[in-house]
Structures are given as structure tokens and as C-alpha cells.
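Mods, move this if it's the wrong board.
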Amino acid sequence: MRVIAGKYRSRPLTAPPGRHTRPTSDRLRETLFNVLAPRIEGSVFLDLYAGSGAVGIEALSRVAREAIFVEQAAPALKTIRANLSSLKIHSGYALEAASAAAAVKRLAAQGREVDVVFLDPPYEHADEYELVLNLLGDTCAKLLATDAIVFAEHTKRYDLAASYGSLHRYRTLRQGDAAWLNRVALKTGTLTQPRSVCGVAGYLRKRDGGWIAFAAIVNGGPRFKHVPLYAAIGAERHDIEALLRKY
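Not the wrong board. C-alpha cells:
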């Protein structure tokens, strides 16, 4: 494993020993942070079931204000500390040695606010999704800042509910066995069926031996151009022509 981008770009990371931890792959992290790019700088990033800490470290590398790592397995905690030490990261993070549910409750009780939550429990522990997402959408909802986003990585064989209290699913992304990368409508339609003047859809394209998240801007029907997904996210209608000219 390695850090994908930012100030620690290409620096190696280690994974906890054994098969009890399933680190998010480099490819998945790259795609995740392409989607999250506009949100990371200055954010508070909550990495639940942190494992190696690779996802939270990626956020720090991309100038998140703080990363909170939550992990209860002793080998994984040791690995997170080792990875942080190897990168000489001595501040800007917190390490919670607790279950995800216990940490969410404690952080909410402390009055903390987070901007991005990433949770990736062991796939076989489906009950953890229900437990933590229900907490975030209900009794611990105050932990989430205004416009906070929650990413839940899960196997494609398991489908999450459409809502958990105040949390509502608005995007599903699929890649391989991980169900958080798929072609999605970001604004007013899909790539093949735009519902109005413009639509934005995300997908993957293979390039230079890796996978890069791209978007297609659809302008009034068949005319479209490919642009990096992070550039298209948040684009309002008046930005569409500017994106088309740029790319």
C-alpha cells in the first residue's frame, strides 16, 4: 500500500498482519478521494474501522485539518501508530481505541463535529453498518457537521437501506466487490437520459495502468466531453460551458 496523493504521495504504508483486517486498496482509495476532493482540505475526517489508517492518512496528506482514527484491534492500532510515525505525523490526528459505536457516542457527547465519515467494517459483520449508521442518523446526528458526508464501503452482495434516520442515500458507487463506485447522476440526469439542459454522470476509465474516476458532461443530448470527476462535482449549470471549454 502507498499514499496516493498530497504531501505524503507515494510513501509506503504497512497493513496489519493476518487476514482479520481488509485494507481499502490503493485503487479504491484513489477513486474515493477523487470523489471527495472538494471536501477534504480543512475538514475533520472520521475513519471508522481504520485498520491500517490508510484512508485517514490519505485525508491528512490532502490537507484535512484533522483525522480521527477509530479501531479496537490491537494489531491494527499498532500498525496505525507505526504508519503515522513513519510519515512523521505527530499532530492533527486523534486515535480512538474503541469500537466504532462507542467512539461515535463519545465524540458526539464531547460536542465534536466531523465533515466526512468513512466506515468499512468487516464485510461479515453486516450488523455493524446498521448499528453505526443508525447512530449517525439519529441519537448521534449532532456529530455530523452541516453538509457532512458519510461513505460506507460494503460488498456488492449486501445492500444498505435507503435511509437511516436523518441520513439518506444519494449516491451508490461500485467497483469490483466494493459497492461504492458506479455510474451515477450527480445533477440533473444520467449520461444516456439527461432530464434537462445538462447532466453529469460518473464512471471509471482505465488509463496508464490504473483506474481514474471520470465524469461526462451532457449538454442538450448527444454532445458530451469527458472530464475528471472531481472537476465536475458541484458544477452548477452556469459552470457547464466552462468545463466543456476547459476539457
